[in-house]
Amino acid sequence: MKQTYIMALTAAMLWSTAYVGVKIGLEYAEPFFFAGSRFMLSGILIIPFVGRMKGYFAFFRENWRVVIPVGAFQTGIFYALYFQGINRVPAAVAAIVMGAEPLFTATTAHMLMHNDKFTLRKVISLIGAVIGVVLLSAQRDFGDPSGLRELAGIALMLGACFTGSFGQVIVKKKALNPVYLNSQQIFIGGLMILLLSVLTGESVPTEVPLTFLAALLWLSFVSACAFTIWYSLLKRPEVKVSEVNLFKFIIPVSGAVLSWLIMPEDTPDLISVVGMVLIAGSIILFYARKEKLPPAVRKLD
Questions:
Q1: Cβ atoms of residues 34 and 190 within 8 Å
Q2: Residue 209 neighbours by CB under 8 Å, 6+ apart
Q3: Domain residue spans of the chain
Q4: pLDDT tens, 45-87?
Q5: Which pTM does this prediction carry?
Q6: Distance CA 10, CA 41 (A)
Q7: CA distances (Å), 110 to each of 130, 211, 241, 249, 255, in order?
């Protein structure tokens, strides 16, 4: 399980860098265009690692009924909502709100997977982590127009969390080749978002500065690498969706810290730090070995 934890942590840390990258990219391009370009490029970046192209196309012919729904839920709908949401809130807040995703995924897995049930300790850990996310979000002022805009952004990102949870359960149930699956689903999802860009009349950037290209390339690499790692984990029979997804609670902490360090408009405060400590404590409680817990806590299992 140690390797599983390292892989999950690596994917989470990669994803945590995306919030700052997206905010930088959105300074030069509109949301759907930027997201669609990013994910189509991500799918292409994976192709050199798929091996024989004959097997790559055969995989799609045999599994398109899985690839397309995963592309729609995990990338298309998820990131269409996410990019519209993050365009309305600071990067740190986006990182924090998206920290609720593991709760959506754990709940969906509990309902749809027969071997992924809640225990009381899991429930307490998830509640504690969500309270941490709420504390991290508590400083927003929703009493003025800018606050209402941020509230709409938060609602869009929570919608993204909900749709993404279904994509993960589909991946877990089918246990397909993670490299083939990620390359194809992420390209298809990106194509869906790019079509949205055309349908909504978004403009294409006339200037492409180096900063934008750097953000686009880094985000494309993050998606290509992190999703492939994640699908590799979900393919393992011993890995439960709800358990591995708790590592995603690291993302809002790391993402917020990076945003505070890089983005001039984002600054930390005491409540945010308390929220982060609560999230970290919830992860420790969730993953701690039963025999190392106090007797009163062991009874929660």
A1: no
A2: 28
A3: 2-298
A4: 888 887 778 888 898 999 888 889 888 888 888 888 888 888 8
A5: 0.72
A6: 21
A7: 17, 42, 9, 18, 27
